[in-house]
Design a protein that fits this description.
Layout (H helix, E strand, L loop, with lengths): L1 H30 L9 H8 L2
């Protein structure tokens, strides 16, 4: 019974650490300046023919 309790505590702690790391990474990525994706020549040609 004691081993199961330790396993549950360790896996819960790992889960919390991973969750917090995930939130930090999302915040970092979200705070970056948005740079628009380049428009390829194929898209420009398609729009030109419409």
């Amino acid at each position: 019974m004691e081993r199961q309790k330790i396993t549950a505590i360790v896996t819960g702690a790992i889960s919390l650490v991973l969750g917090i790391l995930y939130l930090i990474v999302v915040q970092i990525l979200d705070s970056r300046e948005m740079i628009p994706a380049p428009i390829g020549m194929a898209v420009l040609n398609t729009l030109h023919h419409l």
